[in-house]
């Protein structure tokens, strides 16, 4: 049944389409939903963010309820041991902080890690707070055999740390696109050299996740409410080779000369406190 959805971009409501997918059928996913920032509440120097065919101005309680439902459907369709990466940001409404953890903790997912995306530009240019240049990426994990931790990342992926610095993509018709290097990093880190997996993005927008998946040899499933964005995604997928250099640039960062284990086995430097501890041990021997 999943074959009917593979390598396609669907126009429609994410929740309705997700409910048609079979259980435990998808390897992983990446998405960034509309943030419910309210089209009429942008900064005085920032253009209004308007999504074609969708609203970004729901009552907050309704917005969070929908997000929980979508994330729980994703939990159902992702295979045990699979991952989903959810990009969002901290918002404020009349001085009250709205944090993604407010609804993520109400889903079925295990929150494996919170990653900071340093966008390098301010999302709000007023001075009510220090200018916010970060967004969050939550690594959500579906346990396998009640194992809450999951498989260990290879060193060449883990060394990229939990703070990612990418500038937002330019020259994109979508109002809030992330750069292709971001989903490429995620997909490559999780799938590594495995090919032919299925990557889903239920709010695919301009198709960035889908293109990254295709370049990396994975299948994809995209969903978006806007006919315009779905059409653009399909066009972009047809021209995917034009974006290969960007993905290759990201992959070139996944390199480790020597693992921690190898350094330790050879008695080489494994941390800034090791040398000090060795010196202390040696001095204590002389004192005796």
Describe this structure in words.
The protein is α/β, with parallel strands linked by helices. The protein folds into two domains: 2-256, Vaccinia Virus protein VP39 (Rossmann fold), CATH 3.40.50; 258-288, no CATH class. The protein is built from ten helices and ten strands. It has an eight-stranded mixed beta sheet with strand order 1-10-9-2-3-7-6-8. α5 packs across α6 and α5 crosses α8. The longest helix is centred in the N-terminal third of the chain and has 18 residues, at 60-77.
Topology record:
Layout: E1 8-11, H1 14-18, E2 26-31, H2 60-77, E3 78-88, E4 91-93, E5 96-98, H3 101-104, E6 110-118, E7 134-141, H4 155-158, E8 163-165, H5 181-191, E9 198-201, H6 208-215, E10 219-224, H7 227-238, H8 244-251, H9 260-265, H10 274-287
Write down the CATH topology of the largest domain: Rossmann fold
| Side-by-side strand order of the widest sheet | 1-10-9-2-3-7-6-8
Shape: globular
| Percent of sequence in beta strands | 15-25%
Total of helices: 10
Q: Please state the average pLDDT score.
A: 87
Number of domains: 2
Unreliable segments (pLDDT under 50, ≥5 consecutive)? 42-51, 273-288
CATH class categorisation of the largest domain:
Alpha Beta
CATH superfamily of the largest domain: Vaccinia Virus protein VP39
Describe the biggest sheet?
8 strands, mixed
The number of distinct β-strands equals 10
